[in-house]
TrEMBL record:
The lineage of its organism: Bacteria, Bacillati, Actinomycetota, Actinomycetes, Streptosporangiales. Pfam families: Transpeptidase. Gene3D superfamilies: DD-peptidase/beta-lactamase superfamily. Residues 5-78 form the Penicillin-binding protein transpeptidase domain. It comes from Actinomadura vinacea. This is Penicillin-binding protein transpeptidase domain-containing protein. SUPFAM superfamilies: beta-lactamase/transpeptidase-like (SSF56601).
């Protein structure tokens, strides 16, 4: 089972070269996209992640793809934070 450092590296890879690469997430963000299929409807889009000391989760019901819908919303949220 991977340790915390390995998990952080995998989540960072999702943002730098994986399914959230084109979401416009700020530098230092790590996360995981997801698309949850539901019976008879459009899938739910989700993205969970962290940046510095902020952890977040985005869920868009019937939104489609996590990488295309939820991750860009997380990027907007993170860019709006005052740092």
């Amino acid at each position: 089972m991977p340790g915390a450092d390995a998990l952080r590296a995998m989540m960072r890879a999702v943002v730098t070269g994986g399914t959230a690469e084109r979401a416009g997430l700020p530098e230092g963000t790590a996360g995981k996209t997801g698309t949850a299929e539901v019976g008879g409807g459009a899938p739910h889009a989700w993205f969970i992640g962290f940046r510095d000391d902020v952890a977040f989760a985005v869920l868009v019901t019937a939104g489609g793809s996590g990488g295309e819908v939820a991750a860009p919303l997380a990027a907007r949220f993170l860019r709006a934070l005052k740092r």
